[in-house]
Amino acid sequence: MRKIILDCDPGHDDAFALLLAGKDQEIDLLGITVVSGNQTLEKTGINTLNLCQYLDIKTPVCLGASRPLIKEEEVCEVIHGDSGLDGFEFPNLKIGFDPRNACDFIIQTLLESKDKITFVTTGPLTNLALAMRIQPKIIDKIKEVIVMGGSIANGNVTPAAEFNIYTDPEAAHIVFKSGAPIKMFGLDVTRKLMVLPEIIERMKKINNSSSKLFVDLMKVFNENQFKVFALPGGPLHDPITIAYLIDPKIATLKKVHCTIDLSHGSSYGRTNIDVFDYQHLPKNIEVAVDVNVDRFWDLIEDAIRK
């Protein structure tokens, strides 16, 4: 089994990354660390507990950073709503957080593990960056960092920057420069994973508790995506990270050189990716350039059925 830590900020799309990670028999979900991003830490934390309880995922949930390293906190209320998971009424919450801070949990889990651990991020990279700065020895214990974030082409909060990277560019810089193997799944592939009306109908036919979660959340997600971007269906960004771990053939990756723009100018937070190797610099990440859309939805359906 592949041992992973999932760092997230639920978030409609994070919900189904969590579903994939919690229900696949070849993934050992060691814990979930929570960061502010799609909403405040208070809200993303409660959302994570609600999802774990509803989906019967039993693993430690640890609260982490409540704001970026340098920037002021920004949330994505226009897409995810006031709660961060608008559209679904969860049962009364009966479970609680692990007492450890996310950084402490990350450091302890990595240092005590005999095996290298895969670290998956579906929100800003603040928790991992802090852990790396506090205890650099953890870097050698990371098998790879699977990042949902960034873009080769256009952003989604500015013309240049994608939300997860833009929310804490300095944290992304620390992680990308750490020397840990990085695999980045950006908007170039996630924008192909559209929750079109036929996808909602497909999942609705499963008719179980997880399909109800999908349908109710995606209806609100799509409404907000249409209001903001005029898209016919919202891109389901975050689950591609776990889908790739389940089936690496689902995506095509390319080795490239990447830096994070920290200029505080109009391109602040951009992932500057030398996809054509103009600069002949060391290739420090792998970036996804294509995705098998049909296979992705098959994996989502399989997880919902489980």
Automatic annotation (TrEMBL):
* Gene Ontology molecular function terms on file: purine nucleosidase activity
Q: Does the keyword Hydrolase apply?
A: yes
Please list the residue ranges annotated as the Inosine/uridine-preferring nucleoside hydrolase domain. 4-298
Keywords, ordered alphabetically: Glycosidase, Hydrolase
- Among the record's GO biological process terms, what is one? purine nucleoside catabolic process
GO cellular component entries: cytosol
Concerning InterPro entries, the annotation shows: Inosine/uridine_hydrolase_dom (IPR001910), IUNH (IPR023186), Ribo_hydro-like (IPR036452)
Is the keyword Hydrolase in the record?
A: yes
Pfam families per the record? IU_nuc_hydro
Position of the signal peptide? none
Q: What is this protein called?
A: Nucleoside hydrolase
What organism is this sequence from? Hujiaoplasma nucleasis
